[in-house]
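In the design runs reported in the main text, the only information available to the sequence generator was the tokenized backbone. The following block is the verbatim input for one such run; it is reproduced so that readers can re-run the procedure and compare outputs position by position.
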């Protein structure tokens, strides 16, 4: 019996090798693993590139497509809707989203709706319309859709959400590259640069790299001081404001 089970197990392992070997692999990389934000930072262009490794180095007959995504950091956010009451704009409805990305950019070799169906796009969160932001508590579908649409439109206009269906270039069916603009207002944190290999509506391979966006120089010193010594930082800020205000008033009095 043990010999028979061992034979069956060995056959199963042997049969599984060709199936795994038949799957292509991605070898991704980014032009910079860390982006430093200083006072002179006006934005940067991040290059996502890599290669597709096919079994036996043989290209398939069907065309394969590439989708790249740069996103992060995920954080909770409260959205408020303003209404005009008696000629005054006031806060009305609000909603709290638990997993809203501070930045999301997606580029592909073809439009997403030409590559995968809606279900697959929703599972992998491919595209701005497929972001899963997880509202806190129960919320009506119409209300949630309205707030998410408003957030996407706001972030798109500020450059924090970006979508380009022709950003990825594929050379000889093996090498790929895409440029993702990173705006000056990008939040600091850990980002994930994800690459998806898609063929015949299926995601064949996924690979990712981490990218750090951090403050450097004097900006980093101020940010760390505010986080670690909040009380002293507040007193210093108030003292500097009073000092600058007094200095400005003294100068104008002399004139």
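Verbatim output:
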């Amino acid at each position: 019996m043990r010999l028979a089970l061992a034979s069956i197990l060995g056959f199963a392992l042997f049969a599984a090798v060709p199936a795994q070997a038949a799957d292509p692999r991605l070898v991704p990389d980014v032009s910079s693993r860390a982006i430093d934000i200083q006072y002179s930072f006006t934005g940067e262009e991040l290059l996502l590139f890599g290669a597709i490794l096919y079994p036996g180095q043989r290209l398939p007959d069907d065309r394969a497509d590439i989708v790249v995504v740069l996103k992060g950091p995920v954080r909770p956010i409260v959205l408020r809707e303003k209404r005009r009451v008696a000629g005054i704009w006031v806060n009305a409805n609000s909603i709290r989203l638990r997993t809203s990305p501070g930045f999301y950019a997606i580029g592909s070799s073809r439009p997403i709706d030409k590559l995968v169906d809606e279900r697959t796009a929703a599972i992998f969160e491919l595209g701005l319309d497929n972001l899963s932001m997880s509202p806190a508590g129960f919320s009506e579908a119409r209300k949630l859709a309205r707030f998410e649409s408003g957030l996407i439109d706001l972030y798109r206009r500020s450059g924090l959400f970006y979508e380009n269906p022709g950003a990825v270039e594929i050379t000889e069916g093996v090498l790929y590259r895409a440029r993702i603009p990173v705006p000056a207002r990008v939040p600091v944190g850990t980002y994930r640069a994800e690459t998806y290999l898609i063929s015949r509506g299926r995601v064949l391979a996924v690979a990712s790299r981490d990218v750090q966006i951090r403050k450097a120089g004097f900006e980093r010193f101020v940010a760390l001081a505010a986080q670690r010594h909040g009380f002293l930082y507040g007193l210093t800020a108030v003292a500097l404001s009073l000092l600058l205000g007094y200095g400005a008033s003294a100068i104008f009095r002399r004139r």
